[in-house]
Design a protein that fits this description.
Helix 7 (about 230-245) packs across helix 8 (about 250-260). About 40% of the residues are buried. With about 600 residues, the protein is an alpha/beta fold. The protein contains 17 helices and 27 strands.
């Protein structure tokens, strides 16, 4: 657990391909960089340590690297992002297409199939390095940059400051590197030096056609000196006002500064900035999309790629329900005794409340198999005993949860409970927003349906029969506000013991129906978890049809001795709520007789 296995695996693979790798700083949950600079212009994108000599050459420890070096770097810095040195040393040149404006710039350009990475804002296209020096170029086209000799790129599986993960576009990772397309090769090929192409003329005035190149050159110089984005913007604005005629707009000047500041401060720049007006037309979109958008659910309850909340009173059966669900999902087919049908799915169950021996005892009492590796458990107390963090509030704790998910690749990721796996003030909306964004980020990065098991507020016994709502969840409203769905588990007592009612409190899509389940816990019998399905509050069948099914079942198999209502409900498949109504009707009409009260209640047929 002390090494980031995915980073090491990919770094070793890149090294085998002949690419030079380097550990980078990484973004923290608060959006800052691990370098601790409050105004870091490129969080998670610059090397952890010095990587160049004073003359700009790559340091020997990176130029000649072994597999042991790579393992040591990421063992010492398990959260580090992964960088690749570009240019002739690795044999690659990378085209950095930034956002919609960058895509608009290359819409009519020929681009051959080549290894491609999806970044936090756009794409990286990897090409074979040409037979000439390729310098780093800012804005060779609007929002299109080049990373060549002396530069680096952030590579998969690094994390962007937005929370997105750098990923290879499916089917492209193993493609051979393509040659630079002719139009791009022509732009990058060194031209004969022209004297004073971007230098300040004798008049001291920078005229139209030279303004962008002049300001970009200054911005590169300031960035190499480690100046902040705001300092670069201020310096460029002053140069623009005093020397450019006519001056560029403030937004254009800021765009130049932002583009240059995205790169590590040590990287040299060659100026290819072209003057252009920002084309906002590329951001206009028609309503809807041409391709079908599909949302994938787990058990018809939780959406993959989003987080949900399951809340109930302590001891209300939340964890038991989740154990039953992951056990059913492991095999696929009918799940939760008929609630839904599912393909086999994998579950990662991170338990923060109970130790392993208690969870094992529960699983045995419920007679579940929870087959490994389809269902995998992680216990917070074991992490803490090794001095490791496992929570949603700290960068290290989140990184460990993310690593576990990357290794187990679950469809369903259960966090039981939210209170035990974060240490913010639950009642503070601002503090809990950070935690909830971590939940959203975790679901997005893993593609899993993330379920945070949570608690309901304590209520008086007299109020336990009242309907529950989102307001009954403990803590800040932010917990449910950012969730794609929320469920409440309410417990009611009847003659058969505890009835657990699972109700959807919120859903971004069509809400699932309410259903119930029972738990029986006796000294002589092992604990059973039986799900009595009530997909809608009242079954869609006529009263006469339901009553006929119930009376026929009683006469066929239970006419000679007392019986429990729950047995009849199970045998007929009729909901608990509806069967109770029918039994009361039959008693009133003299068809049935009630024997005893409370949990011992039995019924018999009046002959």
């Amino acid at each position: 657990m002390k090494s980031h296995s995915k980073q090491i695996f990919d770094a070793l693979q890149y090294n085998r391909w002949g690419w030079v790798v380097i550990p980078l700083h990484y973004p923290l949950l608060n959006g800052k960089c691990s370098c601790s600079k409050p105004d870091c212009p490129s969080p998670g994108k610059h090397p952890l340590a010095k990587w160049k000599s004073v003359n700009g050459d790559l340091l020997p420890e990176y130029r000649v690297q072994t597999g042991e070096d790579i393992k040591r770097w990421w063992s010492e810095h398990p959260n580090a992002n992964l960088g690749i040195i570009t240019g002739q040393i690795s044999g690659i040149v990378v085209v950095d297409i930034d956002g919609k404006e960058g895509e608009h710039s290359i819409r009519d350009k020929e681009l051959p199939s080549t290894p491609t990475v999806v970044t936090g804002r756009g794409r990286h296209l990897y090409f074979k390095a040409p037979d000439f020096e390729t310098k780093n170029s800012v804005c060779i086209l609007p929002q299109v940059d080049i990373r060549g000799d002396g530069g680096l790129v952030v590579a998969p599986p690094s994390i962007h400051v937005s929370g997105d993960v750098y990923k290879w576009v499916e089917g492209t990772k193993d493609l051979p590197l393509a040659d630079l397309p002719p139009w791009l090769r022509q732009l990058l090929k060194p031209k004969e030096k022209q004297k004073d192409t971007i230098s300040q003329p004798a008049t001291g005035i920078i005229t139209e056609g030279n303004r962008n190149d002049y300001l970009t050159s200054i911005a590169g110089s300031m960035n190499r000196r480690g100046m902040s984005l705001e300092a670069i913007v201020a310096g460029l604005q002053e140069e623009n006002r005093s020397k450019c005629f006519p001056p560029l707009s403030e937004s254009e000047v800021r765009d130049i500064a932002k583009s240059v500041s995205r790169y590590p401060s040590e990287a040299p720049y060659e100026i290819h900035k072209k003057e252009h007006e920002t084309d906002v037309s590329s951001f206009l979109r028609p309503g809807g999309v041409s391709e079908r958008v599909e949302l994938v659910s787990v058990g018809n309850l939780f959406l993959k790629g989003f987080y949900s909340v399951l809340a109930g009173q302590p001891g209300g059966g939340k964890s038991l329900l989740m154990l039953k669900l992951c056990d059913d999902l492991a095999r696929g087919g009918i799940i939760l005794n008929g609630y839904a049908r599912s393909d086999p799915m994998r579950t990662l169950f991170i338990e923060g409340d109970y130790p392993k021996n208690m969870m094992d005892w529960r699983i045995q009492r419920m007679k579940l198999s929870v087959p490994f590796p389809a269902v995998q458990f992680v216990y917070k107390d074991e992490f803490l005993s090794d001095g490791l963090a496992l929570d949603l509030s700290s960068a290290k704790g989140y990184s460990n949860i993310l690593e576990l998910a990357r290794m187990s690749k679950p469809d369903l990721l259960i966090l039981d409970s939210l209170a035990s796996l974060q240490f913010k003030d639950e009642n503070d909306n601002s503090a809990m927003k950070t935690v909830c964004l971590s939940l959203s980020r975790l679901a997005k990065e893993t593609g899993s349906a993330v379920v945070a098991v949570h608690h309901l507020k304590k209520v008086k016994r007299s109020e336990r029969t009242l309907p529950i709502s989102l307001d009954d969840l403990i803590g800040a409203s932010m917990i449910s506000r950012l969730a794609s769905s929320a469920y409440g588990v309410q417990v009611k007592e009847d003659e058969d013991g505890q009835l657990h009612i699972v109700k959807n409190l919120k859903s971004w899509v069509n809400p699932p129906g309410t259903f119930t389940f029972r738990t029986k816990n006796t000294v002589s019998e092992e604990e059973e978890l039986e799900l009595l399905l009530d997909v809608t509050p009242f079954p869609e069948e006529s009263n006469s049809t339901g009553k006929v099914r119930i009376i026929n079942t009683i006469r066929a198999g239970h006419s000679q001795e007392p019986f429990k209502r729950s047995i009849i409900a199970r045998e007929t498949g009729i909901s608990d709520t509806y069967s109770k109504q029918v039994f009361q009707d039959f008693i009133g009409r003299g068809i049935l007789r009630q024997i005893g009260h409370g949990k011992a209640t039995m019924y018999e047929l009046v002959q």
